[in-house]
Amino acid sequence: MLSGIQPTADSFHLGNYLGALRQWVAMQETHQTFYCVVDLHAITVRHDPAALRRRTKIAAAQLLAMGVDPERATLFVQSQVPEHAELGWILGCLTGFGEAGRMTQFKDKSAKQGTAGTTVGLFTYPVLQAADILLYTPGPGEGAAGRVLRVPVGEDQRQHLELTRTLAQRFNQRFGETFAIPEAYIPEGAAKITDLQEPTAKMSKSASSPQGIIDVLEEPGPMRKKIMRAVTDTGTEVRYDEENKAGITNLLRIYSALSGTAVPELEQRYAGSGYGQFKKDLAQLVVDTFTPIRERTHKLLADEDRLDRILADGAARAREAAERTMEVVRDRVGFVGRD
Ligand code: TYM
């Protein structure tokens, strides 16, 4: 199993946590897992080098603080495993220009960047993502296509996963069986957490207002305020209704995912009590979930040597797996052998 996250902010947000990261922690119990902080992806838009370095460390610390266990999972930074860029190049040579141009995230991001800010890297971003995933094919080579390779992600990554599957199949057909065909693992209920101020838009690092996002590392005060001020409709009924009550529906999803209580049970619990009590309880739940993660993150960041050692060890293990795949890939593609 493989998944990745970009180090593009000083904290992950609630959408990242519920859509993906919680599953990362759970799946290390049952799968061989590779978790990657994708710094190569983070430079597809203009960036500040010092901020990237800081955010990469914060990202790794948060993942450990959430429960990623470096004994069981391989946690690493993408740029420390050069095979990602190498396979990215090869897969790029199998990707149609039109095919890459149809990616909706590229269309959205390039519209935001404008022509001058839209880089070739942004265009080939999903191809590099395909490389991230396929490098960790269990048992690359003959029989690989039948093996299971799961990718826990939120709904917004579905199209990139489809492209990855297409590229894996295309490579296998053209050059002989090499890659497993990956499967997206998208959580029901929490696949798309929306913005607290704009409940029909995805909660996102690039949101127009910070009031709409809950950061994992945020202090309890602002966290509570944001939830209490979350946009809801003018009614009073705590009821799941995507079309007419997008704000309350989003909060119900968050509540349900964090507490493990089914939505109908929550609707019943808050019948007649209005939005105030519901929001107050949800705020407490969010604070209780993230306070220990914030505290552990700060502790981990205080011991940078240890963090660097964990990442170096993760990169060494990831390279071993990535090299196994690349040996097959280079041979299949027709590159002359290396000693
Ligand atoms: P990124 O860094 O934007 O987000 C990391 C993960 O968080 C999920 N997510 C959400 N889930 C639910 N609701 C939301 N509002 C929300 N916002 C974000 C994302 O779906 C993702 O799972 N392209 C990827 C990074 C990547 C990757 C990979 C992922 C690079 N290589 C290989 C999986 C496998 C991205 O930008 O995620």
Largest sheet strand order: 1-2-3
Output the radius of gyration.
Answer: 21 Å
Task: Please mark out the parts with pLDDT under 50 across 5 or more consecutive residues, or reply none.
Answer: none
> First CA to last CA: what distance?
29 Å
Structural class: mainly alpha
GO molecular function, one term: ligase activity
Family: Belongs to the class-I aminoacyl-tRNA synthetase family.
Catalytic activity: tRNA(Trp) + L-tryptophan + ATP = L-tryptophyl-tRNA(Trp) + AMP + diphosphate + H(+)
Organism: Actinomadura keratinilytica
Q: Would you write up a description of this structure?
A:
The protein is mainly α. The chain contains 13 helices and 5 strands. Strands 1-2-3 form a 3-stranded parallel beta sheet, with helices on both faces. The mean pLDDT is 96. Tryptophanyl-5'AMP binds next to strand 1, helix 1 and helix 7. The site of tryptophanyl-5'AMP (TYM) has 26 residues, from strand 1, helix 1 and helix 7.
